[in-house]
From TrEMBL:
Residues 28-189 form the Uracil-DNA glycosylase-like domain. GO terms for biological process: DNA repair. Gene3D superfamilies: Uracil-DNA glycosylase-like domain. The keyword Transport does not apply. Keywords: 4Fe-4S, DNA damage, DNA repair, Hydrolase, Iron, Iron-sulfur, Metal-binding. It comes from the Bacteria. This is Uracil-DNA glycosylase. GO terms for molecular function: 4 iron, 4 sulfur cluster binding; deaminated base DNA N-glycosylase activity; metal ion binding. The keyword tRNA-binding does not apply.
Length: 198
């Protein structure tokens, strides 16, 4: 078994053994190993589990188009998540019908994958880690909110890696004003400049 297969086996074992609360399945990271750029999101949603890949749903479409806008393709980057399982919430309607929705991962669920994600980073050995949203931000920096640090580079002493925090692409869905869009586009341009300088 090679290192990548070992990683996959470990993720499977953790997810299959997780019985604290129902989950909506799990996925692994996607893209080349090693790779110069590693993007880290929060956790997969329904479409990601169905297709077995991170960022292929609605947020993934937004992510892909901004990625292309700075001259990058999915094939040239590695993308993974802070939590490999899909955290779900089961809601019961007044008519008794159950619906399933996504929820943010609990701290304990992020903790489940701490060593695995560190191992993935070690194998990918990226020049830069781009965190998408608050969940990976809190995992890899001392910041609590993306609003205070996006679009700049920080050094993680433990990992000895550069970290570039960005808003999660789904933030565009919640912030439909022009100034947010402009700021988000600008962060991608800053990422492009940063990539050219490292
Ligand atoms: N959002 C994430 O944070 N990760 C995915 O894989 C998909 C959507």
């Amino acid at each position: 078994m090679n290192a990548k297969e070992e990683l996959i086996e470990k993720i499977k074992k953790i997810c299959d053994g997780y019985d604290e609360t129902p989950t909506g399945g799990y996925i692994f990271g996607d893209g080349p190993i090693p790779c110069n750029i590693l993007f880290i999101g929060e956790a997969p949603g329904k479409t990601e589990v169905e297709q077995g890949k991170p960022f292929v749903g609605m947020a993934g479409k937004t992510f892909g188009s901004y990625l292309n806008s700075i001259g990058l393709q999915r094939d040239n980057i590695r993308i993974t998540n802070t939590c490999f399982l899909r955290p779900i919430k089961i809601n019961q309607g007044k008519n008794g019908r159950k619906t399933i929705s996504n929820r943010p991962p609990k701290t304990s669920e992020i903790e489940l994958f701490k060593d695995i994600l560190n191992r993935e980073i070690e194998l990918v050995n990226p020049k830069i880690i781009v965190t998408l949203g608050n969940t990976p931000l809190k995992r890899f920096t001392k910041f609590n909110s993306i609003g205070e640090c996006h679009g700049k580079i920080y050094f993680n002493e433990d990992l000895k890696k550069d970290i570039f925090p960005m808003y999660h692409p789904s933030a565009l869905t919640y912030n439909r004003n022009d100034s947010f869009k402009l700021m988000y586009e600008n962060d991608w341009k800053k990422l492009k400049n940063t990539l050219n300088s490292i």
